[in-house]
Specification:
Blueprint lengths: L7 E6 L3 H17 L9 E4 L5 H10 L4 E9 L5 H20 L3 E8 L2 H6 L8 H19 L2
Helix pairs in contact: 1-5, 2-3
């Protein structure tokens, strides 16, 4: 990565806040441990996972070097889970490809509440930490490639 600290944004879905706030805290802890500070104004709410790709694309276009996207979709009794999960995944991939910026997928797609809680606890398995790590690693790789 270049010598300057990357400017990163974090998007946090407002659905399942007991999970998404744990993911946010994990991402912030990982970034802090790696010398990257996130200003409170650089953490953006999203109504739900479906809206995250549009917000991520706008943030990437507005000067952020990367965007860490955090959310949680828990399977219910309808097909809603499949539609939201697939749309969010494809939307984030498209936004990253269109902007050329790392937009990382920290959206849990679990079958149960318990699975989501396990993945958002304050430990090394926190998926918010993993999304933050993926963003920094992608930035390092893109910097090494140049262009």
């Amino acid at each position: 990565m270049s010598e300057t600290t990357p400017r990163l944004a974090i998007i946090v879905s407002q659905f399942n806040p007991e999970v998404t706030h744990g993911l946010r805290d994990g991402a912030l802890a990982y970034l802090s441990e790696n010398g990257v500070a996130i200003a409170p104004d650089d953490i953006y709410p999203a109504p739900g996972a479906f809206e995250i790709p549009l917000i991520a694309k706008r943030l990437a276009q507005s000067g952020f070097d990367g965007v860490i996207c955090l959310g949680c979709v828990i399977k219910g009794d309808t097909a809603h889970f499949e539609y939201i999960s697939e749309a969010a995944a494809h939307g984030l991939m498209q936004a990253g490809l269109e902007t050329g910026k790392p937009i990382t997928f920290g959206i849990l797609t679990t079958f149960t509440d318990e699975q989501a809680i396990l993945r958002s606890r304050r430990d090394e398995h926190n998926k918010g930490r993993e999304a933050a790590a993926a963003c920094l690693e992608a930035l390092r790789t893109l910097d090494a490639i140049g262009g």
